[in-house]
Design goal:
By secondary structure, this protein is an alpha/beta fold. The protein has three domains: 93 residues, Udp-n-acetylmuramoylalanyl-d-glutamate--2,6- Diaminopimelate Ligase, Chain: A, domain 1 (3-Layer(aba) Sandwich); 227 residues, UDP-N-acetylmuramoyl-L-alanine:D-glutamate ligase (3-Layer(aba) Sandwich), CATH 3.40.1190.10; 157 residues, Mur ligase, C-terminal domain (Protein-Tyrosine Phosphatase, Chain A, Alpha-Beta Complex), CATH 3.90.190.20. The protein has 16 helices and 24 strands. The protein is globular and about 80 Å long. The relative contact order is 0.08.
Length: 510
């Protein structure tokens, strides 16, 4: 594609240089530049792309997009823009020939439940006979081919490349999970949506957004991208959902258990570790019973959201029911490992106060004499939630092991002490009630080996879920909670009749 073809769709303040090179790629990372690339210099939280212009040129960049003209850009065309992130989104959409125009793209946003709703929707559309694509926290899927997702919502070129791949593979619909970071940083800007779903909003990501109002506005911005007449599917049980429904002027439908406020009214709901069921009173007057293997009571509104969105997009009732009934829990979401008669492990992705509270309610329903919680909080993220999550862990747990969860560039011990402050405020003492073990694998080992014979123990390993890396001081190390737990169960001989080969002596909290 020629540069002039991209410039025709790229708002800019001017172009320095009159060359019209062939553009072979659009990227924001100088390390990914190849001959013919357009390099977009983005100012990030830690790095400024303008500092990497020389590197981009050395690798063969044919044009650069900048917010100010730079002598480091050399002789190649410089496109000057006001907002490099929005320019990246526009350039990527143009380069990939606007694939969203060839698909029905459904966006899903909210603090909790996005991944599960995305899984449910993809299953519903498949049950209806559609060819599907899925981009979410856990994985990306196109035409049945899976690959692990790098981010909940990739940068704009990654999102557009995914949509182009889906369109070229003949997909009819693409379900895209839209994080608040992705929305605030214009990663999905300009994508016309066939539907959008709002699950809920609770305390999280305030390191980026500053306050809940800004966080809400970032989420609500997704609904500005709906095509004319496309449905906004909104949770009427959530206060921010009600706020969104009140302010949204387009076509909207609500779901939830709030009578008088829900177009798809949920009633007679029950849930447990064997699955869930509920009924829905639909806008057309019909009543539908739905069942799912999903385990949490919080999955009832997730299923209702997917059902409502599917129906509003024309999916037959039976296909929607089938899709929901066949959707398994996404990996790392209330993932149950029944080790032996005395020990059960649950792995969950919960990493905000609200999601932790919801998950803990469900985990505490498991029969247990003792409940051990292993978790941590991320570095370079919302500091306020750390003591809140520490307090929650102690309210639900009998013993807490504080560990690492992606400290990034922050001091690991300082993060753990922030979490510990919440336990101490609730009356917990160290090491009688909790301890800090920064090595996450060793923290899991300690929790597993502290289970006592004749006592039912549940170990909840929280915060990482499906993720396969730990991020420390700018480096990524391979790590996965499920793989680590399985390895330690084998090493400790815990599947052999409840043996405790490496049990800690003088078990704390006994």
């Amino acid at each position: 594609m020629k540069l002039k073809d991209i410039l025709a769709e790229l708002p800019h303040r001017g172009v320095k240089g009159d060359a019209d090179p062939e553009i072979s790629a659009v990227t924001y990372d100088s390390r990914q530049v190849k001959p013919g690339s357009m390099f977009v210099a983005i100012r990030g939280l830690r790095l400024d792309g303008h500092d990497y212009l020389a590197d981009a040129l050395a690798r063969g960049a044919a044009a650069v997009v900048v917010e100010e003209v730079s002598p480091r850009a050399g002789p190649v065309p410089q496109i000057v823009v006001d907002d490099a992130r929005r320019a990246l989104a526009a350039a990527a959409a143009a380069f990939y020939r606007h694939p969203a125009e060839e698909l029905a793209v459904v966006g899903v946003t909210g603090t909790n439940g996005k991944t599960t709703v995305s899984f449910l929707l993809e299953s519903i559309f498949r049950a209806a006979g559609a060819k599907t694509a899925l981009a979410c926290t856990v994985k990306n899927v196109v035409a049945g081919l899976e690959r692990r997702a790098r981010l909940t919502t990739g940068e704009a070129p990654e999102v557009q490349a995914f949509l182009r791949e889906a369109a070229d593979a003949g997909a009819d619909v693409a379900v895209v999970e839209a994080s608040s970071h992705g929305l605030a940083l214009s990663r999905v800007a300009g994508i016309p949506l066939a539907a959008a779903v709002f699950t809920n909003l609770s305390h999280d990501h305030l390191d980026l957004h500053g306050d809940m109002d800004s966080y809400f506005r970032a989420k609500a911005s997704l609904f500005e991208q709906l095509r004319e007449g496309a449905p906004a599917v909104i949770n009427a049980d959530d206060p921010y959902g009600r706020r969104l429904a009140a302010s949204f002027a387009g076509r909207k439908v609500t779901y939830g258990a709030s009578e008088g406020a829900s177009d798809y009214l949920v009633y007679d709901a029950s849930s447990g570790w064997g699955g869930l069921s509920f009924k829905v009173a639909c806008p057309d007057g019909s009543r539908v019973e739905l069942v799912s293997p999903l385990r949490g009571s919080f999955d009832v509104p997730n299923c209702a959201a997917a059902f409502a969105a599917g129906r509003e997009l024309g999916v037959p009732v039976e296909a929607a029911r089938e899709g929901i009934a066949e959707t398994d829990e996404p990996p790392g979401r209330l993932e149950l490992i029944e080790v032996n008669d005395e020990l059960t492990v649950v792995i969950d992705y919960a990493h905000s106060p609200d999601s932790m509270d919801r998950a803990m309610v469900e985990i505490r329903r498991l029969p247990a004499d003792r409940f051990v919680v292993v978790f941590g909080c991320s570095g370079n993220r919302d500091v306020e939630k750390r003591p809140k999550m520490g307090a929650l862990a102690w309210r639900y747990g009998d013993y807490v092991v504080i560990t690492n969860e992606d400290p990034y560039y922050e001091d690991e011990e300082a993060i753990a002490r922030d979490v510990a402050a919440g336990l101490i405020a609730e009356g917990a003492s160290e090491p009688e009630d909790f301890r800090i073990i920064l090595d996450r694998g060793e923290a899991v080992r300690f929790a597993l080996s502290s289970a006592a014979p004749g006592e039912r123990t549940v170990v909840a390993v929280m915060g990482k879920g499906h993720e396969d890396k730990l991020r420390v001081k700018g480096r990524e190390f391979p790590y996965n909670d499920r793989e680590t737990t399985d390895r330690l169960i084998a090493e400790l001989g815990l599947r052999s009749g409840g043996a405790r080969a490496a049990r800690a002596e003088g078990r704390p909290g006994a």
